[in-house]
Amino acid sequence: MPKADPARRIAWEVMRAVDTRDAYVNLLLPGKITDAGLGGRDAAFATELTHGTIRRQGTYDAVLETVTTKGLAAVDPPVRDVLRLGTHQLLSLRTPSHAAVSTSVDLVREQVGHKPAAFVNAVLRKVARNDLDAWMRRVAPSRDADPIGHLSVVYSHPRWIVEALRAALGDDADALERLLEADNDAPHVTLAARPGLTDTDRAELEAAGATPGSMSPYAYQLPSGMPGGLSAVRGGRVGVQDEGSQLVAIAAAAAPLDGDDAAWLDLCAGPGGKAALLGALAGERSATVTANELQPHRAELVRKAVRGLDNVTVVSGDGRKPAWEGASFDRVLVDAPCTGLGALRRRPEARWRRSEADLDSLTTLQRELLGSALDSTRRGGIVTYATCSPHVRETQEIVEAIVARRDDVEVVDATRLLPQVVDLSGPYVQLWPHVHGTDAMFVAVLRRR
Ligand SMILES: C[S@@+](CC[C@H](N)C(=O)[O-])C[C@H]1O[C@@H](n2cnc3c(N)ncnc32)[C@H](O)[C@@H]1O
Q: Per the database entry, which stretches of residues form a coiled coil (predicted)?
């Protein structure tokens, strides 16, 4: 019996782990690629297969629904994932049909058994009869009759997410389509080269082909995705961080402040990307940072991220019940837990895992954390509230509710803190993948009166 191709087997194993034990692709896949000894093109193919298939699953399921006699729900999940992988190769990669079909048959034989092999062969041959555009004309709801349903199938986003993004974009149909398309592109690897970089570090980045970002003075784009080999990354002076996340830390540090600027707090710090940049920025002003994280194992990740910064103290606790005394901080960042709808490019499974029902508990937590951040800030101090989601319930509505409820809070125009960023309309900053090439970070800056 022919053995399954290792890249396809790995992609399938990751999809099964996502389905059966809520695994995270970004955590699981790199180890599997290393264990299988894949490098270069094979590693890139395994990554593209896994990320691409999971991202476009909604589109492929709509196709598979029409070519399976009893519908996709009647197909055994391990076989269904083989079909999705084969469909991705047929409709989105340039894999020749005979190769996409025969490797899928090998995979199902090896992993599931002989019985479904003929079924997989027959279904994928039907998929191969049309290209992606022709399939979309056949299976997607009409754009006129059901515009959200149309976009949901064509761009493979759950309906509730399309609706939420449309609302966040103020019903701009062109922008919505560009955003959905951008969510399906693999993002570049962006590095944050923190203040204090040595000339040797800079030379190493240049030698690796890294080019400066356009909005954060600390950002570098890498042409390929293997930053772990750089000594500046291993030494903690450079970290992998989206340029949008860097802008959050930059805005938090830039907001004008009267009086002391010595004690900063990062209330929700894990895994520590922003804490590390904030720590380096605070260090330039001889300020200290307390980095707080609820989950002890994530607090450990923060400790790792800030190694080498002796002005950062990491603590683990619930940010709603602070361990510190009263309103003692000059600057506080609340990078709140959220649905992550702004980082769908980066986390292929996230769009299928979240549901609208998550919003109720998340928005309650966000409100409580922002309230606690304000209570931890001295009068005249600054609180920056950020999410990697543009959902209006997690962004504007949280900020506006607290401003309406408390008489000691005023909104600072955050767009003025980031003059290098185009296409912003204040007072909040909302970044977008299709406009800024970043995750869709939201930033609001508040002053405690
Ligand atoms: C969006 S992430 C923060 C990302 C981080 N600032 C960075 O740049 O790496 C939100 C974090 O808040 C933590 N968290 C959730 N509930 C919390 C709470 N009640 N108090 C403090 N942290 C909490 C989560 O465990 C998660 O690590």
A: none
